[in-house]
Specification:
GO terms for molecular function: ligase activity; ubiquitin protein ligase activity. It is an enzyme of class 2 (transferase). It catalyses: S-ubiquitinyl-[E2 ubiquitin-conjugating enzyme]-L-cysteine + [acceptor protein]-L-lysine = [E2 ubiquitin-conjugating enzyme]-L-cysteine + N(6)-ubiquitinyl-[acceptor protein]-L-lysine. The structure is a single chain. The chain has 7 helices and 4 strands; from the N terminus they run H-H-H-H-H-E-H-H-E-E-E. It starts with a helix and ends with a strand. The model has no long low-confidence stretch (mean pLDDT 88). By secondary structure, it is α/β, with parallel strands linked by helices. The protein has 2 domains: 39 residues, no CATH class; 83 residues, Hect, E3 ligase catalytic fold, CATH 3.30.2410.10. It has a 4-stranded mixed sheet, covered by helices on one side. The radius of gyration is 22 Å and the shape is elongated. 49% of the residues lie in helices and 8% in strands.
């Protein structure tokens, strides 16, 4: 039985995917030669490819730039009070809403910044928050 299980596992995880993996690897290395990856430590490469999966949300708050707001405005204080009470998964959903991804890739967390702007509309009660994912700006009505 052990030999059968070993052969089956080897087939499923190695042999059956060997050709597709080799094709993928050949294409990948054509666009991104292996010599370029050698400058990274494994941990750095993982962050570069996968992004950060854990965050210091208070550091994220400190790095925000405000337009037509200050960090002492009631709307901003309310936003951060509610945000910090959210469960981790909801905070990541906000990050996906803001940036298009629930991870921060290619950045040191200390360098990741985004903006919160007042869209300055006539009736803010009729406008929902929206985000510009290209510029990392959350438009938050008062």
């Amino acid at each position: 039985r052990k030999e059968y299980v070993d052969l089956y596992v080897n087939y499923m995880f190695n042999k059956s995917v060997q050709k597709p993996f080799e094709d993928f690897m050949q294409g990948f290395l054509r666009g991104c030669p292996a010599r370029n990856w050698k400058m990274f430590f494994p941990e750095e490469l993982q962050v570069l490819l996968q992004g950060h999966t854990t965050f210091d949300w208070h550091l994220l708050e400190k790095n925000v730039m405000y337009k037509h707001y200050t960090k002492l405005d009631q709307t901003i204080r309310n936003f951060w009070t509610v945000f910090h009470k959210l469960p981790e998964e909801k905070k990541k959903m906000f990050l996906a809403f803001l940036s298009g991804s629930n991870r921060i890739t290619g950045y040191e967390l200390e360098c990741f910044t985004f903006g919160i702007a007042d869209p300055q509309v006539k009736n803010p009660d009729e406008v929902c928050p929206c985000a510009n994912t290209c510029y990392l700006i959350l438009f938050l009505p008062r």
